[in-house]
Amino acid sequence: MIKTIAKVGNSRGLVLDSALLQLARLKEGDQVNVEVHSGGTITITPIRPAPSREDIDLAIETTMNDYAETLAKLAK
To answer: Under a CB-based contact definition with an 8 Å cutoff, are residues 59 and 53 in contact?
Structure first.
């Protein structure tokens, strides 16, 4: 995808359309890490919080419940 750098106030920026933001799972207000590599490549990485212990426990419990029969067969 080709984008054009545009003037934004006294700075320059890229406009990211909604389809691109959706593909990257980003929304307005999200933080990103911007890295400039040798050769001029720029990498933009979303900063997402690590899942909480409660979220992890819930995911494990849900998986165990959803696949209890299959897991029991595999344990034999």
So the answer is: no
CATH number of the domain at 15, please: 2.10.260
Structure tokens of 68? 């209890």
Q: Residues for the chain: how many in total?
A: 76
Residue 1 lies in a domain: no
Please give the Cα distance from 18 to 26 (Å, whole number): 9
CB contact at 8 A, 5 and 12: yes
Distance between CA atoms of 39 and 22, rounded to whole angstroms? 28
Check: pTM over 0.70? Answer yes or no: no
Q: With 90 as the cut, is the pLDDT of residue 4 above it?
A: yes
